[in-house]
Amino acid sequence: MSSTTLDATALKADFPLLASHDGLVYLDSAATSQKPQAVIDAEVGFLTSANAAVHRGAHTLAAEATVLFEEARETVAGFVRAAPEQLVWTSGATAGLNLVAYSLGNASLGRGAPASARFALRPGDELVVTETEHHANLIPWQELAARTGAVLRHIPVRDDGTLDLDGAAEIIGARTRVVAFPHVSNVLGIVNPVAALVALARDAGALTVLDACQSAPHVPLDLPALDVDLAVFSGHKMLGPYAIGGLYGRGDVLEALPPFLTGGSMITTVTLDEAEYLPPPQRFEAGTQPVSQAIGLAAAVRYLDGIGMDAVHAHETALEQRMRAGLREIPGIRLLGDADGAERVALCAFEVDGVHAHDAGQFLDARGIAVRVGHHCAQPLHRRFGMTASVRASAALYNSASDVDAFLDAVSGIRSFFGVAR
């Protein structure tokens, strides 16, 4: 299926959980996506027919497992238009961001090759994030600042949910060493202006780190074309298994970064006093590898490629427009980041006047509609909008217009159920 349209109702048959839960409206894909049978079969197939440690054994089964593992790297790298050597396996985006932050910290301690010195941080250097960050792209930088004496700054978000680029231009400057930001906010659903932020960072000589968790499953993604230095994404949000993700890096950046985790599989020579490390990506892949998970993620991207990411994006754009327009018409609903004209993914977070987000979520769950409630690991952003929690509905390629309509119908009854409608 590679046309510009897709049949979400037909696709549901590919997802065992959705096919077996009649009437379920699953709108929590921003937290974790459902898995097609092809992904389940790929992971189980490896475990039942080719299970062995990779890069270590000389026997036939180990060699076969290694080939499958590295073919998976090639497949997933190709999905984001990268070369295989530019893709480091991680346990997820959080692990990838921590890897980068701790690698920079190690460079600041003088570890690594001479080229690592370019990443050394000194007191007064600045790390820049945004006010929209998921905690995974905030706390590692807080910790890095605390370890090195660097200063953490943030780009503010406007009332409509868009980033303040004028503010960004004032913040990013001669002392900026890192600019880390989300491709898509996991609360606002807005696609951020990557080109503008990268240009500001390039002018300052700063490293760019992109959180692509909420873009990789929903929009065609070409990381080299975006010109970011590093980027992370998470398998379980893009139809793949848990405990697998990717760190993309420009070749020169990965070559210069010192390792973070150390141990087996990432070394060339070890004595009792010192070690020499493999080149990327193996330099950053210490210990036992996520082999079946990588193979499952490769199956996930083959599934997405088979449908076509242009078709996925077009379908989900229509769902987002239907969802946001419907929420706007319901009295007592306050949308977060309701900017007109912004490119978006199919994600809407909102507040129900007079009803706590958790109560609203339970009301929807009782009607077979699964949404996310809480601060979505973005407390500073919620605080910016004067709230502690919101309801978030997030769609994926397997959602249909009827799913959105059922959701909107249920939301329209929340306030009257709790006796706060006027």
UniProtKB/TrEMBL annotation:
InterPro entries xref list: Aminotrans_V_dom, Cys_dSase_SufS, PyrdxlP-dep_Trfase, PyrdxlP-dep_Trfase_major, PyrdxlP-dep_Trfase_small
Family: Belongs to the class-V pyridoxal-phosphate-dependent aminotransferase family. Csd subfamily.
Catalysed conversion reaction: (sulfur carrier)-H + L-cysteine = (sulfur carrier)-SH + L-alanine
Superkingdom of source: Bacteria
A Gene Ontology molecular function term of the record: pyridoxal phosphate binding
Matches recorded under SUPFAM superfamilies: PLP-dependent transferases
Keyword match Iron: no
Record field: transmembrane: none
CDD domains on file: SufS_like
Keywords: Pyridoxal phosphate, Transferase
Obligatory cofactor(s): pyridoxal 5'-phosphate
EC number: 2.8.1.7
Coiled-coil ranges from the UniProt annotation: none
GO biological process, one term: cysteine metabolic process
Domain Aminotransferase class V, residue spans: 25-407
Keyword S-adenosyl-L-methionine applies: no
Species: Microbacterium ulmi
Name of the protein in question: cysteine desulfurase
UniProt-listed Pfam families: Aminotran_5 (PF00266)
